């Protein structure tokens, strides 16, 4: 009578539980992960497998037949928790007949509440459902009529609680239900069947259970997988390789993550957290390399990243050209240097040309040599050229001046210095007096300035009736002048030559002869100084006292 409604009730409860579980899973996919829990992070789903003892206390009325306890049984239950403390539970218990007719299944569902700690969890629940219970056996030996009755489904209520112990193995997956103590109430209403008497049973009983717990999931899921990636270098020219490196966080080290890469430009390859982008042939612009890390397809267990990179336009070549030295004499050479300013940094080819029809330029690298052999004085323009495999080229020019050598300097010439006169002292016409001092000092200064120069002194004597031998007097005047320069001014005697001349004046003339200069031919006759006696110079006049 009640079997069909209660069968539908059981199916409805199971369906509602499944819908709740599915809705919760869907919510876990779309809801951002909560921060890590403070304190215990209990399981999301608990499955209990254990032994169950059923102690029946009730009778079939009006006959008064009593139900006996069943000390053998099994229980299976599953609980889904909406949060840390509350959830819904579905339970099924099976008790084979003791002194009753046969197996008694008990199916219930309802809310469950718990108080989790690090080691143990206390829980309580209240459930409603149905039980399929047969009538108790009659005592035929006592002459009691046979009131045994087949199975009948009837409503059942369960309320109770217990304590679980959490085992530390396998990330807390296992536990032990130390005990579960429930009060059960079952109502059965039997009708007459097959000649048996009917009856009504209201059975209150205690149900004690213990067994193994399996924990699945957590109320607060693990932090979601995150993925970041970076391109290095991030700014290149087409053809340059790029390495993209991804960094995944919160990946379960016990699972193998898979990596995949895509790019909106170029060719990207890689199966780990590192990939390479081939940028050959790419146009200038901004692009992204995208990576994916997947631990599983569950929400929060895969993530994506994007690494931007830029392809720069290839710059134009910038070339400077210089010559060192920039001025040479005919036949000289100059080094031509090319300097390319190019951030692209690709190899270039160098060539050189020049405007002159003579000479030559050689070199194919950053430097070349210009030879001006055979070139006439003037300006030669050298052109420096560079090109590369990208079709870029540039030119620059520099000039080299070919300058005719200056004429050789004129040969040094002898030059006349000052002259000394001997007209005042008629009694001593060969003596050097004080008035000659200024001229002699100037002569000594010139010899000091040019230490390699020599001095020619030529003595002269004017014709006079009083002078018996003019050549002798002229020689004495020249020798006395030399003696002054040697003795008073410290001039090396070997630097001074003395001569006698025919100037017809009472003088000694002087000629400064630089090194390399020719000795003038008109100096006169060389004097044999060993035949001439040196006369002392006249002392300066003393001042009279007033």
From TrEMBL:
Protein name (Swiss-Prot/TrEMBL): OmpA family protein
Signal peptide limits: 1-28
UniProt keyword annotation of Cell membrane present: no
Region (Disordered): 514-546
Segments forming a coiled coil: none
Domain OmpA-like: 430-510
Keyword Calcium found: no
Gene3D superfamilies: Immunoglobulins, OmpA-like domain
Keywords: Signal
InterPro entries on file: Ig-like_fold (IPR013783), OmpA-like (IPR006665), OmpA-like_sf (IPR036737), PKD_dom_sf (IPR035986), TAT_signal (IPR006311)
Compositionally biased region (Polar residues): 518-533
